[in-house]
From TrEMBL:
Organism: Isoalcanivorax pacificus W11-5
Complex and partners: Homodimer.
Gene3D superfamilies: Fido-like domain
Positions of the Fido domain: 130-281
Protein name from the UniProt record: Protein adenylyltransferase
Pfam families: Fic (PF02661), Fic_N (PF13784)
Entry annotated with the keyword Transferase: yes
Its EC number(s): 2.7.7.108
Enzymatic class: transferase
Keyword ATP-binding: yes
Function: Adenylyltransferase that mediates the addition of adenosine 5'-monophosphate (AMP) to specific residues of target proteins.
Residues reported to bind ATP: 83, 217, 221-228, 259-260
Keywords from the UniProt entry: ATP-binding, Nucleotide-binding, Nucleotidyltransferase, Transferase
Length: 399
């Protein structure tokens, strides 16, 4: 690395208060320019092909929007877990089904906010490109009414923040983003990069944009979640994906410490190439897993359709109607069947009994009244392996 290369991502500048803050250089790196060697080009091709397979798999799904429901929630759960929430996908689904369980984590609201923020961002893309204005709207949705809501939802920070172990001071921080008077220019350059024709491959551009957003850290809280949501928004905006089904947080969570280390190495050493390789590996890995999940959904749906057609007799038509609804709402009640099909309570109870008897639904409350039933096999397709252990979460600090 040349002496100038050390500063290709920006410089640490000592502030009047005595601490050193990082002032990022505009993207893309120019001194020296980004080097996409043969190994990186191979990773890029692999990631592109994996995304193509994923998009094709989703497009062939019957009623694809029904299945996107779970992909969005999967991303919301994993991205929020990186920030320290404890809620699982089952917890979030239960919260949406209004199951009151005192033993359930109380931070499910944060995950539900993430779902709403992603939906809002995707819904705004027709009228508003990915921009500072859009991320402010998303941030406002993300932080409304949950932990951190006092940290100016939707507003760019006007004070210094920092990243480091819990309870650390500004002087002890692992990383200090640009101070507010420098942040505006950095965000402006970041937005220009998003819309400039740089001739960079799109996935490389998205990887650079995510890393730079995390480096600027424009909010007092929620930067990680907004930055990861940004990846999906950019891919959908450019129509690389027609549906938001690439949850890269799965990969970042699995390799959490490497994720943080490589982001920091871009600032300290200008190591953009190492970050881009990691990012492309993540895209390929997660896209392949999501494609396998999509195929599993198709197989599961067909298996359960055949069971209902063969075993439910005159209740088959209503059974198939309930089955289709489960891909949007995988936790239901007998009242849900009544509302959906218009049958009487006894008929709905008999249909629910048949769904349970044939292993399609499982009762999850253990109660005699106000029971809820879960489409466990479907939820299991989105289950996640254990997170990387022994890694402490960096905390966002502020005065």
């Amino acid at each position: 690395m040349t002496e100038s290369g050390r500063f290709r991502a920006g410089r640490y500048i000592r502030q009047p208060q005595g601490y050193r803050a990082f002032i990022p250089a505009p993207l893309p790196p120019v001194d020296p320019p980004l080097q996409l060697d043969d190994a990186t080009q191979t990773l890029l091709s692999t990631a592109d092909r994996a995304l193509g397979r994923l998009d094709g798999s989703i497009q062939t799904l019957p009623a694809a929007d029904l299945f996107v429901f779970m992909y969005v929630r999967k991303e919301a759960v994993l991205s929020s877990q990186i920030e320290g929430t404890q809620s699982s996908l089952s917890d979030v689904l239960a919260a949406e089904a209004q199951l009151l369980d005192p033993g359930r984590p109380q931070d499910a609201a944060e995950v539900l906010n993430y779902v709403r923020a992603m939906r809002k961002g995707l819904g705004r893309l027709d009228a508003l490109p990915v921009s500072v204005r859009l991320i402010r709207e998303i941030h406002a949705e993300l932080m409304q009414g949950v932990r951190g809501e006092e940290r100016q939802p939707g507003e760019l920070r006007r004070s210094q923040n920092w990243i480091g172990p819990g309870g650390c001071t500004l002087a002890e921080a692992v990383y200090v983003p640009p101070p507010p008077h420098e942040m505006g220019e950095a965000l402006s350059e970041w937005e220009k990069f998003l819309h400039r024709d740089t001739r960079l491959p799109l996935l490389v551009k998205v990887g650079l944009a995510h890393a730079q957003f995390e480096t600027i850290h424009p909010f007092l809280d929620g930067n990680g979640r907004v930055g990861r949501l940004l990846i999906t928004l950019l891919l959908c905006e450019k129509q690389v994906l027609m549906k938001p089904v690439l949850y890269l947080s799965h990969y970042f969570r699995r390799h959490r410490q490497r994720y943080y280390d490589l982001l920091q190495a871009t600032r300290d050493d200008g190591a953009w190439e190492a970050w881009i390789r990691f990012f492309l590996e993540g895209v390929a890995s997660v896209a392949d897993e999501a494609t396998a999940t999509a195929r599993g959904i198709v197989a599961l749906r067909e298996q359960h359709r055949q069971v209902i057609i063969a075993q439910f007799g005159r209740r088959a038509a209503n059974g198939l109607q309930v089955l289709e609804s489960l891909y949007t709402m995988p936790i239901i009640s007998i009242q849900h069947i009544i509302n959906l099909t218009g049958v009487s309570f006894p008929a709905a109870s008999q249909l629910m009994d048949a769904l349970v008897r044939h292993g399609i639904l499982h009762e999850i409350t253990g109660q005699q009244r106000h029971r809820r039933f879960q489409y466990s096999a479907y939820i299991a397709l989105f289950s996640d392996g254990p997170a990387q252990v022994g890694v402490s979460e960096p905390n966002e600090g502020r005065p």
